Amino acid sequence: MAREAVEGEDLRIGVAGFGLRGPVAVEAHRPGRGSRVVAVCDTGEAGREAARRALGPVRLTGDFADLLEPGIDAVMILTPDHTHAGLAVRALEAGKATFVEKPLAVTLEDCDRVLRTAYERRARLYVGHNMRHMPVVRVMRRLVAEGAIGEVKAVWCRHFVGDGGDYYFKDWHADRRNTGGLLLQKGAHDIDVIHWLAGSRTARVTGMGGLTVYGEITDRAPGLPQDWYDPARNWPPLAQKGLNPVVDVEDLSMMHMLLENGVYASYQQCHYTPDYWRNYTVIGTEGRLENFGDLGAGAVVRVWNAGRRAYDPEGDLTVPVVAGEGGHGGADEELVDEFVRFARAGGATDTSPVAARDSVAAALGATESLRGGSVPLDVPPLAGDLAEYFANGQF
Q1: 143-176 per-position pLDDT tens digit
Q2: How far apart are CA 200 and CA 42, in angstroms?
Q3: What is the rounded CA–CA span in Å between residue 183 and residue 104?
Q4: GO molecular function, one example (predicted)?
Q5: Residue of 11, 48, 41 lying closest to 29 (CA atoms)
């Protein structure tokens, strides 16, 4: 077991990967305020240089082993998805409190290997499902818990990924060897939220979808092209240029879920819409709720629960969504706060390694179904000894 962080001292953090989720490492760098990044490992010079500019005088390395030395209390893994499991296992075996960016892994076997390692080594494992801290999700969760719509019976999510052509089809995300598929890479967040709102995991799943637009684009480039993100120029979707040489993930996909507690759910994802946001509808025995907007100003959650009527766009209750400062409406700050506290003391957290594994399992099942004729598939649960251990808080 690695050295426990001393109360009153900053938690000393080593970061693996300084790319698109680099801002989480920046959020964790709070010298004198509880945590500080002391080392960053990135295999590319560009990543190390970005870390130097963002964090100042921290140790920079290309060797992950440097993050496992005694002078580091916790490790944050912010690398591409297919590397998560191997790095997490190494960090946990070294006894480090370990933060793994979602998804936990890209195979169910790797998810369970990471969980098993944390259990056997008694090393604290935390998964970065920051949407559990997003204000819009917190509002919906609170309304459900307060009984505003009665007992939940259905959860629907429509995900309009308007910038998907830029974010997910110009680098490693577009290659299913690295992601499994975008139901996993992008959808794991929303599947986790669906499970959280419904209070259960997916037991059976069916998927459908395909590569419907971006497969037609023949302009390809190794690595991100210059000026790769330009919302004005990169429209309409077929005008995109410089896609990844390998594009074999779906740009339109959907899944139906039967949860273990009997709730029915659905998730739809499209990567070429003109707008970028997600819309949830939660239906219960005494009403329904729905969000309008998620991260931007003016977002609200509306509730219909005062009786039957025809079309009513306003509903019976409107709850404003008050976003915080920083990434994802303040969710990244809350996520880091929770991780730092957990790395020191263990205990219950709003995120859950088991729930992270369950979102991967559902997404993998849906992707397999989608690519295999939309046959319904059962989603295997986690082994009982692991489920019990993580439910008790990893003290």
Answers
A1: 999 999 999 999 999 999 999 999 999 999 999 9
A2: 37
A3: 14
A4: nucleotide binding
A5: 11
Q: Provide the token pair at 287.
A: 């009403």
Query: Can you list the domains of the chain with their CATH numbers?
Result: 132-331 (3.30.360.10)
| pLDDT tens digits for range 281-314 | 999 999 999 999 998 889 999 999 999 999 999 9
Do residues 182 and 173 lie in contact, with contact meaning Cβ atoms separated by under 8 Å? yes
Tell me if 210 sits within 8 A of 252, measured CB to CB.
yes
Q: Which residues pair with 36 in a beta bridge?
A: 12
> CB–CB of 183/207 below 8 Å?
yes
Residue ranges in 168-207 assigned as alpha helix (H): 176-179, 182-185, 188-198
Nearest to 205 by CA among 289, 108, 132, 282: 108
Largest alpha-carbon pair distance within the chain? 65
In degrees and rounded to multiples of 5, residue 232 shows phi and psi of -75, -45
Which long-range contacts (C-beta less than 8 Å, at least 24 apart) are formed by 219-227? 219/243, 220/244, 220/245, 220/247, 221/170, 221/245, 223/171, 224/170, 224/171, 225/170
CA atoms within 13 A on the CB side of 263: 23
> Which of 204, 121, 187, 118 shows the shortest CA–CA distance to 359?
187
Amino acid at residue number 120: E
Q: How far apart are the first and last CA of the chain?
A: 13
Q: Give the global pTM.
A: 0.95
What's phi and psi for 378, nearest 5 deg?
A: -80, 145
Alpha helices in 188-330 (DSSP H): 188-198
- Low-confidence spans in the chain with pLDDT less than 50: 1-3
Give CA–CA dist 215/392, Å, rounded.
Answer: 46
- Measure the CA–CA gap between 151 and 305, rounded to whole angstroms: 12
**Spatial contact of 32 and 84, defined as CB atoms under 8 Å apart:** no
